[in-house]
Design a protein that fits this description.
Length: 196
């Protein structure tokens, strides 16, 4: 089975002024596509060649370059779906859950932003739902994904430098601040709702 690069859910310039067309082109066409191409080079002739992406990432034997490239494809697929040029707000059920878990919506945003800012080196900040239903904010390094810890991803922010360096240089905090203008709350709600 060949792993496919999904189409972006928006035009490349649609996230401006917060994320430039140039960043999207490099991030999607070079980095994301590169992970897809590398994974498709690695899996033929292995036990993974007929498996779908999610199965590869969560497979106990997926390690090294196969895991790293598969997980980066999965993480990027998820990240692009978390973004939209159409500003929105969390639906009431999600907002209530966030307020219950973090005290307020602003407190959630502040905590998530701090986790994203403090993720050392390359990685991801995630809003996740735990098995028993609690909402938590976690960070993963490199190609890590919360699914490996039995947590359901609801939202992610990519804090690898390629996600923001063209637009913000080393000002990760400014990128994270602007990230909130682009969150696709409908997608986050679907993840929250479907995880029940």
């Amino acid at each position: 089975m060949s792993i496919i690069l999904p189409a972006l859910p928006f035009q490349k310039e649609a996230l401006e002024p917060y994320i430039s067309r140039e960043t999207v082109e490099f991030h999607y066409e070079k980095h994301h596509r590169g992970y897809v191409n590398k994974l498709n080079e690695l899996i033929p002739g292995t036990q993974f060649e007929k498996l779908d992406l999610l199965t590869i990432v969560t497979h106990p034997n997926a390690t090294g370059p196969i895991f790293n490239n598969a997980a980066q494809v999965l993480n990027h697929n998820f990240y692009w779906d978390c973004l939209t040029p159409n500003q929105s707000s969390p639906k009431p059920a999600l907002l209530t859950a966030l307020e219950k878990a973090f005290g307020s919506f602003d407190a959630f945003k502040a905590q998530f932003s701090q986790v994203a800012l403090n993720t050392f080196g390359s990685g991801w900040a995630w809003l996740v739902k735990e098995k028993e239903g609690a909402l938590k904010i976690v960070s993963t390094s490199n190609a890590g994904n919360p699914l490996l810890d039995k947590k359901i991803p609801l939202l992610t922010c990519d804090v690898w430098e390629h996600a923001y360096y063209i637009d913000y240089r080393n000002a990760r905090a400014k990128y994270i601040e602007h990230f909130w203008h682009l969150v696709n709350w409908s997608y986050v709600f679907d993840n929250f709702n479907n995880s029940k």
